[in-house]
Amino acid sequence: MEQHFKPKSQDQLQAQVEEFGDKGVKEFSDDQKKILKYSSELAKIDDINNLPSDLSPELVELINSNQKRYGNFLCKLKEKKKEIQFKKENIELFKEKFEPAIKELKEKIEKNNAKDQYLGSGSNGDAYWIEIEGKKYAAKFSRSNVQANFEIKPLLRAKNIKNAAQLVAYSFDYNVVIMELLPGKDVTKFSYSNVPEYSDRDIIQLIETVKELDQNDIVIDPKPSNFIYDEKNGFSVLDFHLKKTNNNSLPESIIDLSTVLTTGKYEDHILSRSDYEDPNYKEKLAKQTIEWNKSYLPMMVRFLTIIQNKYPDILEEYKRIYAEKEANPRISSSPIIDREHIPTDHPDLIPHLKKLEEIGF
Ligand SMILES: Nc1ncnc2c1ncn2[C@@H]1O[C@H](COP(=O)(O)OP(=O)(O)O)[C@@H](O)[C@H]1O
Ligand SMILES: [Mg+2]
User: Fold this and answer.
1) Whose CA is nearest to atom 19 of ligand 1?
2) For the chain, which domains are there?
3) Model-level pTM greater than 0.70?
């Protein structure tokens, strides 16, 4: 029978090299960094035993040291078909739809910071919005391509989870991850006077999102900057990770949301540097503590009451885990309602503290 061989396209070969860089070498290794960086150049090499004479010494070294591993990888290519197909589609989508806008944005950032398109930053990168065909997206530039490669994994796992960041495309040439633009602002952007009044519905929906992520083996990073809020859509979650054995449990993750719900209310009460020299510093500090608790405690009552009524198992499990950690001398733990640092005899705070005690805090 006659056989037909069709040469693989450049994009297909690049996807193959990316898959090797992703799974064939050690995560976060130097080789991974180089393979992902040079994937399109590596894909142009036809014959590994007959390298072009003008190839850079860095690439020659990279190829030589990975030749055997790549050979083994090629033998198992059939098993990787789905992953390679996904990567190929991403390469095509990025080139066609996003590359021009990302190029333009990068130049704009270098020239004038692109302040008008800036969304926010975290420890791993800076995010900007871009608009393509009338639709807005979030483009997050990672510090490196291995970091971008790492961040894609939980995003893939979170596909179609409502109110969670959604991956659209990515590129290792630009170290960029493109996501659907989540509506609203991250909660660190609200200050005391304009923190929204989160409704019970908002809070329940946030807990449900965290639960659904957990069911998909994803754990949240409870930093407030990872939570976006919008009055119409409620809370959205970004910047989450694949679960590992030493991660926080679901009940702990849910209780951690208290930080998200009370952010902003706090910052404006923090005394400034100059206040340290104030002769009334102690008095001011005491007043600050009271003010802060006046907004913190009612929110905690509301939050914990919701959990008690709607998720009693989670509350019990949290208490059990907390008691266990508290009994462990190697772990330092402080309760979420820390009476040592609350003026417990203040008349404005007593009613809230009483309610919290009834819930067991
Ligand atoms: N999909 C998105 N929609 C809207 N804003 C976003 C999106 N992704 C990131 N941001 C903004 O960019 C900031 C940093 O993004 P994040 O993914 O949390 O980065 P890091 O991993 O560095 O913490 C966020 O706090 C948020 O303000
Ligand atoms: Mg973040």
Assistant:
1) 122
2) 10-81 (no CATH), 94-180 (3.30.200.20), 185-359 (no CATH)
3) yes
